[in-house]
Amino acid sequence: MRQTLALLIDAYRDLNSRKLFWITLIISGFVIIAFALIGVDGDAITFAGMRFEMHGVVDPLLVYKEAILSTAVVGVWLTWGAIVLALISTAGLFPDLMSSGAIDLYLSKPISRTRLFVTKYLTGLLFVGLQVSVFIFGCFLVMGWRAHDWRPALFIAIPLVMAMFSYLFAFSVLLGVWTRSTVAAILLTVLFWLVFSLVQRTEPSLLFLQALKEQERMSAERQLARYPTPENKEAVDVATHDEKRIHMFHSLFYGVELIIPKTTATTNLFDRYLLTKEELNAAKSDQQTQDVNNNGPGMFGASRQEVNAATPTVQRALLSRTPFTIIGSSLLCELVVLLVAGWLFCRRDY
Amino acid sequence: MADNSWAIDLRNVAKIYSRRVHALQGISMQVRKGEVFGLLGPNGAGKSTLVKIMMTVVRPTHAEGQVLGHRVGHKPTLARIGYLPENHRFPRYLTGRQTLEFFAAMTKVDRATARKRADELLETVRMQEWANQKIAMYSKGMLQRIGLAQAMVNDPDLILLDEPTDGVDPVGRREIMEVLHSLRQRGKTVFINSHALSELETICDRVAILVKGQVARQGTIADLTFARLRFEIEVEASSHEDINRLLQLFPANWQESQMVIPTAPHLPPKAVSFWRGQLPDGTRAELRGATLHLGGVEAAGAQPALDRIRAAGFVVRRLQQVRPTLEELFMEAITDPTTGQLATPGAAGGPVRKAVAL
């Protein structure tokens, strides 16, 4: 316990000495100040003393929470900007530890390599833990003050963002242990992150496309039942073939997404906790109303009606992915990555 | 059954890197409790690897024996060992005092004791004035002093020091030597890796010389040097004729050879020719320039040779009984006796070879 405590204090001193830690904290402060300029007053959103009336079209509190807090403040700054800075700050943790002359001092003490590895990993999470906690506490105060909505659910962002960071940090640690290079660890981790994001953004699109193709096939089948002509038969065959191909691609991406860390999906869970069921339904019905009222063309060659029919199917499928599945499978991947990194760290000669 | 008198009792320690670099080739080495032991060797001989194996930084390919009564690699034993690695890198964001307290905590020393020891050790290594300054501001010598204090912060029974005086000025070196003397007086075992042979000579009870991952010499400095005790008779002889007369004066199977001798510390050693042979009574003899060296001979044993030289009309310029320095022992150990060439730096890269006969 004495050793663990010493390592934690050491990690705090290390962070304290890094300029980037304070730069991140200062930027977070500016983001909170900017957030505090926005408020909810009756049926209006206020910004720096100006009022923007909603006239009952949308709930201003919902806009405040979903569009401003969840999407802009947490979604952009906390899960992208702050995480990038955190990755840069912590990427050198293991390469520095493993450098010649430094590692000797640690390994020559009565502490096992495994424990040293795990403790150092946890101290890396301390960076994000401190940053996110301070930031979310600030957001909680601002939201209570400016929107008169004191919502403890906001604090769920702390474990969510930390979980998301921990996935990436695990890769950073593996790459740092493997290459012993801070720069390589940063660059390759960001590359992995981009790949994960790409997969996570492509998979729902493919799911949507699959649902559209299903709608197309069903339309073609109805048409064939009504008019059994060779053209309609061919249209059904084409739609079925397309649906199968899209299904195959979706299955492939879904399979990949299952095993990789779900960074985006994890932070998107924030909405589920921030908004009540009524607010979520209201948000969805607003969207659906907009869709139904929209008489413009559909997408991917599908009609507007087919798009409208496919959307709820996709939303249901996405919402059926439980936090347990999303975070659990991501943590499992993280565990595997950490086991490999830990194995490399423990078996290596220094 | 372990012998309790050994602080370090290593047998057959081997380390092979990447299946081809034989850093250590079956090292056996014993260090008594309470003694100061010096490990010498050229660069790449395996000295640091051996220390790192004892400190669990490097995993041995094979190792038997014990350190402080426990098998090599026993982690809890490290709480009783202090270690100063070569080219150490302390966290730059810590102050000297924080560094000592941090590494004390890592060796499970309680906070109050750690603070007390940090104060004492900062005074011992004369770093009180810099105790609250960041390590980043320290010079190499200051870092070495803090490193030494760090190695003692857990009040260890055994202290392993890898190049402890590296980068330290002469005053600092003397102070470090004083610290090591005081450690010995307190019954601590000190194991030093160093190139500073003159310093080791003054402080070490026993030494081992490592060459290409093998122990080439091991023993007390007195034992090692006594075996090479010699009597030197320098005569006035400047011409080749004089040298030939001297050679003929002593019937021996003279063979011309070459040896490498150390020069100034900053200059490379140089090779010189000499004659080597064995006198009829079995005495080893060497003629280096105008000086006759008689191996293993006391003053009385040198008298017949002296009489013969004087009878031949040579003028004796100097008579001296010589005990070789540690540096000479070292140079001899790392020189191939057949070729007279110095051992090349680095570990053995080929198949494991048999140990050189001592």
Structure explained in plain terms:
The complex is a heterodimer of chains A (350) and B (358). With 350 residues, chain A is mainly alpha-helical. In chain A, 79% of the residues lie in helices and 3% in strands. Chain A is built from 13 helices and three strands, in the order H-H-E-E-E-H-H-H-H-H-H-H-H-H-H-H. A three-stranded antiparallel β-sheet of chain A has the order 1-2-3. Chain B is α+β, with helices and mostly antiparallel strands. Helices cover 30% and strands 29% of the residues of chain B. Chain B is elongated. Chain B has ten helices and 16 strands. At the A-B interface, helix 1 and helix 5 of A face helix 2 of B.
Descriptors for this entry?
heterodimer, A: 350 residues, mainly alpha, three-stranded antiparallel sheet, 13 helices, B: 358 residues, alpha+beta, six-stranded mixed sheet, six-stranded antiparallel sheet, disordered C terminus
Strand and helix map with partners:
The complex is a heterodimer of chains A (350) and B (358).
Chain A: H1 2-17, H2 19-36, E1 38-41, E2 44-47, E3 50-53, H3 60-90, H4 93-97, H5 103-107, H6 113-146, H7 157-179, H8 182-226, H9 230-259, H10 263-274, H11 277-293, H12 304-319, H13 323-347
Antiparallel strand pairs in A: 1-2, 2-3
Chain B: E1 6-17, E2 21-32, E3 36-40, H1 47-54, E4 62-67, E5 70-71, E6 81-84, H2 96-106, H3 111-124, H4 140-152, E7 158-162, H5 170-185, E8 189-193, H6 197-203, E9 206-211, E10 214-220, H7 221-226, E11 230-235, H8 240-249, E12 255-261, E13 270-278, E14 284-288, E15 291-295, H9 299-311, E16 316-322, H10 326-333
Parallel strand pairs in B: 3-8, 3-9, 6-7, 7-8
Antiparallel strand pairs in B: 1-2, 1-4, 4-5, 9-10, 11-15, 11-16, 12-13, 13-14, 14-15
Helix pairs in contact in B: 2-3, 3-4
